[in-house]
Amino acid sequence: MSTEPTVLEASSIEITKAILVDLQKLSLSSGEPIAAVYADSLLRVMHDLHDFYPSYPYTEVIMALHDALFFQNRWIDYTKTQLSGACDLISSLVSRVEITNVDVEDSILALENLGFDTLPFGVNFAEIQDENGEEQ
User: Fold this and answer.
1) Beta-bridge partners for 129
2) d(CA 89, CA 108)
3) Left, alpha or beta for 2 (phi > 0: left; psi -120 to 50: alpha)?
4) C-beta separation of 67 from 120 below 8 A
5) Do residues 48 and 15 make contact, with C-beta atoms less than 8 angstroms apart?
6) What gap in Å lies between CA 2 and CA 63, rounded to an integer?
7) What band does 9 get if pLDDT is binned at 50, 70 and 90?
8) Pair 18, 45: CB distance under 8 Å
9) Cross-strand pairs, 135
10) What is the pTM assigned to this prediction?
11) Are 78 and 30 in contact (CB under 8 A)?
């Protein structure tokens, strides 16, 4: 009998199901203090998915949602309807046998259509001016 510890790695589907549970709970508790607990759990599980499965197609969609939710704690500002819509979108991705690059792009656009800012780190070059007040 081996005395070495056995480490079981969670599958991407298990992690995604955990994301869905936390996202549903966050949706249901939106606007309430308990939502912070679900947001924290969701953040950690999203990081797990990214750490263990960085090249999976739906990881890119999850990380786009991650950026929209957690940049400057914007999860506080999203409504139950938006969070529920994101949950439905992720559920539809998980149920697919194969996810193409087009599916990933369409899913990220669907998040944008729900009102999520999936690129919160963007720079508006029109606002960058040099010392003379002229645009660069």
Assistant:
1) 135
2) 10
3) beta
4) yes
5) yes
6) 38
7) low
8) yes
9) 129
10) 0.83
11) yes
Token pair of 93, please? 């991705």
Cα separation values, 132 from 2, 59, 125, 128, Å: 72, 44, 16, 11
Q: What is the DSSP string of the chain?
A: ---SPP-PPPPHHHHHHHHHHHHHHHHHTTTSTTHHHHHHHHHHHHHHHHHH-TTSHHHHHHHHHHHHHHGGGGGGT--HHHHHHHHHHHHHHHT-S---HHHHHHHHHHHHHTT--S-TT---GGG-B-TTS-B-
Residue (of 95, 78, 84) closest to 17 by Cα position: 95
Distance of CA 3 to the CA centre of its chain: 39
Which two three-digit tokens encode residue 109?
């656009």
pLDDT at 88 over 90: yes
Q: What is the pLDDT of residue 108?
A: 96
Structure-token pair, residue 58: 């739906």
Asked if residue 82 lies in contact with residue 36, where contact means CB atoms within 8 angstroms, the answer is no
Structure tokens at 46: 């999203």
Write the burial class of residue 94 (CB in 10 Å: 0-12 exposed, 13-18 middle, 19+ buried).
middle
